[in-house]
Amino acid sequence: MAPITEVEGRRVALSNLDKVLYPATGLTKGELLHYHATAAGVLLPHLRDRPLSFLRYPDGPDGELFFTKNVPPGTPGWVTTTRVARSEGPARMVLVQDLASLMWAANLVTEFHTHQWLADTPDEADRLVFDLDPGPPATVVECCEVALWLRERLAADGVEAYAKTSGAKGLHLLAGVRGSSPQRVTEYAKELAVAAERALPERVVHRMTRSLRPGKVFVDWSQNAARKTTAAPYTVRARAEPAVSTPVTWAEVAACRSPGELVFRTEDVLARVRDHGDLLAPLLDRERAAALP
Q1: What region holds the DNA ligase D polymerase domain (predicted)?
Q2: Cα–Cα distance for residue pair 53/164, rounded to 1 Å
Q3: How far is CA 178 from CA 91, 119, 121, 126, 152, in A?
Q4: Interacting residues of 48 by C-beta distance below 8 A, sequence separation 6+
Q5: Between 20 and 30 A from 236 (CA), which of 151, 166, 169, 263?
Q6: Neighbours of 9 (CB within 10 A)
């Protein structure tokens, strides 16, 4: 039987704490749970009020990976859920609102993926996101070049962008927006992706066709669609090593000269949070959100 831990007055079962999930580094499930508990102060605000999809990998990144969108069987009654409209019919999804529900979800061994809208306002996007995905031999270094161009282009429209690593190969750009539907944000993001390809034709592709992507950065604008989700800030990825989707400064983006410079593991992120706090905190301030042109 899994040991029961009390978290903010809730009884949470935490299982298999000694299980090694990342053989490359020896990171155990207990250490992964410790990361989530320690990073909760910066992770939770980016999850709260957002219906979550879970990419679960209970046997580590080398085992089976599967997406969970509906409320998983056995979810405690005290975990908040919300009804979400889908084209195939309504569903119920999890909201991670507090430390107890975060630790319950982390015990499932999951990447956290969020929509670009809040549960109470599904028809209004509050985030714009670009997923910059390099096609080998391009790397995150080329993503940084494209990110800097997109930052300037967004700024010209009064939109302030922030960057984080994807925790995989690429980079994510995010901005706070208001007063636009997910459809309008998607259209705007596509317009900028097309403009980036025109400005940087040897570097950028805006179409998903894989045959077009070797050596270029795919500017994925489609994740702004209402049904799509993106890996949340501070989530640990199901990769060979426990890399985290980590907020970075624009100075770090501009200075990047090799892929390893923008790889952050769990211990690195906790140190960065101690030193810098949440670099994406401005995204949580609705007063700073921009209206799209």
Answers
A1: 28-279
A2: 19
A3: 26, 15, 11, 5, 20
A4: 95, 96, 97
A5: 151
A6: 8
Closest CA to 149 of 201, 225, 112, 101: 201
**Is 167 within 8 Å of 245 (Cβ atoms)?**
yes
How far is Cα 18 from Cα 34, in angstroms, rounded to an integer? 12
Cα(54)–Cα(109) distance, rounded to whole angstroms?
Answer: 9
- Mean pLDDT, residues 99-126 taken together: 97
Phi-psi region of 151 (alpha: psi -120 to 50; beta: other; left: phi over 0): alpha
Residue-wise pLDDT for 7-66, tens only, equals: 999 999 999 999 999 999 999 999 999 999 999 999 999 999 999 999 999 999 999 999
pTM: 0.95
Distance CA 182, CA 245 (A): 23
Whole-angstrom Cα distance, residue 2 to residue 68?
A: 22
**Which residue, among 140, 201, 141, 200, has the nearest Cα to 168 in the 3D structure?**
140
Tokens coding 275: 């030193």
Structure tokens at 132: 């910059």
